[in-house]
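Comment thread on ticket #2218

A.B. wrote:
> Attaching the input chain for the structure job we discussed in standup.
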Amino acid sequence: MKPDVTLLRTAFLLVAALVVVPAAFAETGGELDLFSPEPPTFSPADSAAPAALCPCITGYSTLTPSNTSHTGFGSTCSAAQSNLQVQLWSAALTQCEWDVCSLQVIYKNTCYTPPGGGKAADGYALFGCYAYNGSCTLP
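C.D. wrote:
> Ran it. Output below, let me know if you need it in another format.
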């Protein structure tokens, strides 16, 4: 089962806040002004080294036998290309167990006017996925 990436990131930020705020509170002698414009200072030696970033495994593609490209639509060429990029990121994300770590858009047609009007762009993506091994850090 693929965990919800947004939920994992939220949980990570919550845990980070639970570690950083008490440490800052202790370092300031129990007087932590959360509204101060100056952040508390920490020494790298005060905390354990973070786990290494999870490896990025590349070589995946959004191409399938039944789907040789995706099409993005918009009112301009730029909007159509942006729409295509969002579609390709979403398609890559469904194939990754954790998260997408790289994405290269390969345009088959960078911009054209489809029969219904507006602008369109066709292409596919080559991408990589993070490989979580239990001891690495996901971004």
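A.B. wrote:
> Thanks. Noting for the ticket: The chain has a mean pLDDT of 75.
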